[in-house]
Write a structure and sequence with these properties.
By secondary structure, the chain is mainly α. It contains six helices and three strands.
Length: 146
């Protein structure tokens, strides 16, 4: 589309188009490894825990797509041996999730593939430009209490 009713409309459509392209790229990179973008997101969240257990509800709150069926995604990762589920010693109703050593290896490998794939962005945006875009999008996201 070459004409937009406003620059704000243009940026929204550009963000949607870019998100679709990135998701397609993620699916393509992850599919040969039997991992979906949602599962990859969970593995990244758990890697960020640095070995500390996290409750399922806390994983859900950190998901990129808040509508993800986190419980189902975790079950699939458990079946693959990438996660471990344990009862919290302080609250028996709480189930904690941690990465297994195989999960650690998998997320490290897949993250390397993602970083290599996204390195092409370095030719598009200088670091200060990328930071500015991130800041602007963060500012927008803060106003979108969906």
């Amino acid at each position: 589309m070459s004409s937009f009713s406003s620059e704000q409309q243009r940026v929204v459509l550009t963000v949607l188009h870019t998100a679709s392209n990135l998701m397609s790229l993620h699916r393509t990179l992850l599919k040969p490894h039997g991992i979906t973008p949602g599962q990859f997101n969970i593995l990244r969240i758990l890697r960020g825990q640095k070995g500390k257990p996290i409750a399922l509800r806390d994983i859900t709150s950190r998901m990129i797509d808040p509508n993800s069926n986190t419980s189902r995604l975790v079950d699939k990762l458990l079946t693959k041996g990438l996660l471990e589920r344990t009862s919290c010693p302080d609250d028996r109703r709480r189930i904690d999730i941690v990465l297994t050593s195989e999960g650690e290896r998998t997320i490290c490998h897949l993250s390397g593939l993602m970083e290599a794939s996204l390195s092409s962005l370095e030719a598009v945006w200088a670091p200060n430009e990328a930071a500015q875009v991130s800041d602007l999008l963060d500012r927008w996201n803060e106003t979108q209490n969906l």
